[in-house]
């Protein structure tokens, strides 16, 4: 099977999560990704939250599969020279250093473009270039706050809340991957590389666009009818936190199932899709609701939507989350059990589709990771282990023409 990105060479100058998530995706699809790391320490996530002494942490292994590792001190003249050689023969350089770090290293966009005008230089930063916060270093939760996710997530009587999903990190990496692939296609037409920049704030906001929709609706009409605050509560002039309400025209909520008293995840998400009202009533054994004027339309239901959810919880009381979904699926009701990480890790369907994969690793034994969520008819991405620190240094340097003696000398001066 030919991999679509085979032949594309990527200098992966990334660390932590946002950048590595991007380059890992490109590596799965066949790109030759060379991760450049500082000699001796490498990506900080190799050491973060270790569960096995002396073995790379899962944080690192789960974001750096299918890559090569080259150690290089790019602040030393010898390291700079090697990086320059790599730049001349690569297609893409991806980085997510703090603001200005690449420039301080001597590799500004202008310099990189001079070294290789065909190269695409892709960056993640916390804020976009020219933004009044563009000097800030940023991590995941900071981005969720800056991008509008935190102010709109959680319950109205609690503080702004962070999502467990990596909206700032991996999501930004996915945006960057789209930008890189677009620039590669553009290069096929123009023969020129370009700079691709994605900010974490912008990427979070992009996923929160329905909340910006709500801000404008709120300013026009003064209320948001799909939020739990409507019609009994108050609205201010900003989009409130809506708890577990559905984000569109379909009211929904997280509802208790059998065992919720002891199992914190004995819940399902139940959606009252407007045109499915009749099947919902049939599923719940409430045929009298079908034509009752107090229930018949979405508008009529909204004032007492939480009473309706309470009734559904009564129906769920003797059913596990899995039993409930098995019944509701027959009525075409959009719903799902609230699944735990343990349940997902062992889900036979996710294993079969390659979304959850076991990867053999030289030091750790086998570890579990999330494989490609994108499925192709002509490509089944194979996930291979993340590299050990500097595992491919000799191989990459030899491919650049360095002799064994020269590599030995570079090690002596700690340039690699
Ligand atoms: N050789 C020599 N120096 C290296 C090197 C190498 N191989 N790799 C990195 N460095 C240097 C950098 O040049 C920089 O030096 P300088 O500050 O003296 O110019 C230094 O290491 C620190 O880099 P920096 O990226 O600023 O690391 P940090 O640990 O201070 O900050 C972040 C980490 C993530 C907060 C920051 O990188 C950042 O804001 N990145 C952009 C947004 C982002 O991606 N956030 C993380 C999402 S997971």
Automatic annotation (TrEMBL):
Q: What does this protein do?
A: Involved in the catabolism of oxalate and in the adapatation to low pH via the induction of the oxalate-dependent acid tolerance response (ATR). Catalyzes the transfer of the CoA moiety from formyl-CoA to oxalate.
Q: Does the keyword ATP-binding apply?
A: no
Fetch the InterPro entries from UniProt.
CoA-transferase_III_domain, CoA-Trfase_fam_III, CoA-Trfase_III_dom3_sf, CoA-Trfase_III_dom_1_sf, Formyl_CoA_transfer
Amino-acid positions noted as binding substrate in the UniProt annotation, renumbered to this chain? 248-250
UniProt xrefs under Gene3D superfamilies? Crotonobetainyl-coa:carnitine coa-transferase, domain 1 (3.40.50.10540), formyl-coa transferase, domain 3 (3.30.1540.10)
| Coiled-coil regions, chain positions | none
| Binding-site list for CoA | 15-18, 38, 72-75, 96-98, 104, 137-140
Q: What is its EC number?
A: 2.8.3.16
A Pfam family cross-referenced in the UniProt record is: CoA_transf_3
According to the lineage, what is the superkingdom?
Answer: Bacteria
Q: Return the protein name.
A: Formyl-CoA:oxalate CoA-transferase
Named in its record, the pathway it takes part in is: Metabolic intermediate degradation; oxalate degradation; CO(2) and formate from oxalate: step 1/2
The entry describes its oligomerization and partners as: Homodimer.
A molecular function (GO) term: formyl-CoA transferase activity
* SUPFAM superfamilies associated with the record: CoA-transferase family III (CaiB/BaiF) (SSF89796)
The record's listing under PANTHER family reads: SUCCINATE--HYDROXYMETHYLGLUTARATE COA-TRANSFERASE
Q: Which UniProt keywords apply?
A: Transferase
Q: Which reaction does it catalyse?
A: formyl-CoA + oxalate = oxalyl-CoA + formate
Q: Where is the active site?
A: 169
- What family is reported? Belongs to the CoA-transferase III family. Frc subfamily.
């Amino acid at each position: 099977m030919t991999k679509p990105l085979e032949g594309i060479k990527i200098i992966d100058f990334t660390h932590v999560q946002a950048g590595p998530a991007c380059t890992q995706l490109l590596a799965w699809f066949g790109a030759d990704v060379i991760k450049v790391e500082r000699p001796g320490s490498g990506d900080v996530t190799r050491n973060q939250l270790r569960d096995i002494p002396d073995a790379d942490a899962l944080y690192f292994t789960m974001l750096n599969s299918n890559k090569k590792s080259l150690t290089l001190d790019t602040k030393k003249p010898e390291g700079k020279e090697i990086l320059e050689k790599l730049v001349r023969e690569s297609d893409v350089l991806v980085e997510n250093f703090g603001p200005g770090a690449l420039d301080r290293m001597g590799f500004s966009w202008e310099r990189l473009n001079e070294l290789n005008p065909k190269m695409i230089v892709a960056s993640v930063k916390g804020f976009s270039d020219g933004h009044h916060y563009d000097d800030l270093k940023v991590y995941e939760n900071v981005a969720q706050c800056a991008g509008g996710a935190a102010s709109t997530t959680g319950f109205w009587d609690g503080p702004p809340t962070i999502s467990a999903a990596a909206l700032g990190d991996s999501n930004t990496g996915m945006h960057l991957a789209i930008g890189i692939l677009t620039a590669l296609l553009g290069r096929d037409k123009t023969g020129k590389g370009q700079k691709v920049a994605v900010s974490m704030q912008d990427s979070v906001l992009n996923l929160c666009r329905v909340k910006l929709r709500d801000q404008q609706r709120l300013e026009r009409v003064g209320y948001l009818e799909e939020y739990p605050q409507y019609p009994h509560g108050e609205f201010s002039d900003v989009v409130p936190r809506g708890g577990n309400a559905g984000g569109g025209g379909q009211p929904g909520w997280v509802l208790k199932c059998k065992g919720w008293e002891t199992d914190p995840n004995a819940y399902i998400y139940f959606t009252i899709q407007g045109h499915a009202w009749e099947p919902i009533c049939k599923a719940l054994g409430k045929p009298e609701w079908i034509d009752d004027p107090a229930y018949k339309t979405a508008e009529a239901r909204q004032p007492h939507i939480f009473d309706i959810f309470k009734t559904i919880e009564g129906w769920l009381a003797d059913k596990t989350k899995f039993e409930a979904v098995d019944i509701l699926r027959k009525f075409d009701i959009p719903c799902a059990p609230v699944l735990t990480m343990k349940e997902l890790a062992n889900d036979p369907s996710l294993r079969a589709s390659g979304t959850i994969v076991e990867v053999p690793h030289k030091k750790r034994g086998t570890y579990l990771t999330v494989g490609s969520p994108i499925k192709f008819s002509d490509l089944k991405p194979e996930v291979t282990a993340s590299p050990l620190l500097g595992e491919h240094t000799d191989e990459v340097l030899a491919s650049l023409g360095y002799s064994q003696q020269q590599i030995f000398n570079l090690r002596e001066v700690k340039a690699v």
